[in-house]
Amino acid sequence: MSTDETPRCYLCGGIDHEVVAREFRYPIEKTGYRCSTCSLVFIHPPMSPEEERKFYEEEYGIIYSQEKNTTPADLFEARQEDAGMYQDWVSPWLQPTDDCVEIGCASGYFLAVIKDRVGSVAGLETHLELRQYCEQIGIPIHDRLEEMPEASVDRLFAFFVLEHLGEPMEFLAQARRVCRPGGSIMIVVPNVDDVLLSTYNIPKFNNFYFTPAHQFYYSKDTLGRLFKKAGLPKYEILPKQRYDLSNHMHWMMAGRPGGMGKYDDIFGDRLKRAYADDLVARFLCDTLFAVVTVKAS
Ligand SMILES: [Zn+2]
Description:
It is a single chain. The protein is α/β, with parallel strands linked by helices. The protein is 36% helix and 20% strand. The chain is built from 11 helices and 11 strands. The N and C termini lie far apart (42 Å). Zinc ion is lined by residues 9, 11-12, 14, 35, 37-38, 40.
């Protein structure tokens, strides 16, 4: 590989990388690398704006067809469990007077759940149908993060958004700008140290895991480095496990998703909890929940 073609690591500028993905969830000419210096995992070449636009249309269509749901209202219903889960995670930080904004709020399912517990809620969503649905159910929608006033919110949420962004530092700078001092940015991303990927080494899982829609894959370590580099040194990164033991066994045996709850007749809550707790304790869990405190600049 000549120097011209060697991508530079977004975090540390390093040029030595290990290849971690050549095949993706959808056929595409990309490569997944892990930086040998700082361990950031990234997809190269990065998405062009045109590619990004096209991708979201496709990805969105896939979400709809998989769930056999065709309207934002159906998506709202289908995500009630997720909404409850996010609410549990963020609850310790929520205050009754908080002004809240969620970036990429989809059909507004999470904001609808916390609406009556906080001062105000608003969302950001690029998909037209979803925006209209949010407005119908009383959730105001902003056009762009860049256009939101400075120091105007107490909590900014971004669930499974950061990994899609090619310029996460710019996003964090904007998030920091719109948050009041003492406010917080709450981010959820997939954990690249997920035991299915890092330890069990299931080729079909690897191909499924790496989707060209994601530009970066973070670990506890690289996410923390990103926050520090963005001038946000005060943060907590909490490990979370969403998928269960049945799902993991199904991946091992059948090589595909969809095993959640499959062996519930055999595995009791005690075993399921113990398995998740062990993954969480070792940061081999599937999800990272970060709470970044914004200080006065
Ligand atoms: Zn690096």
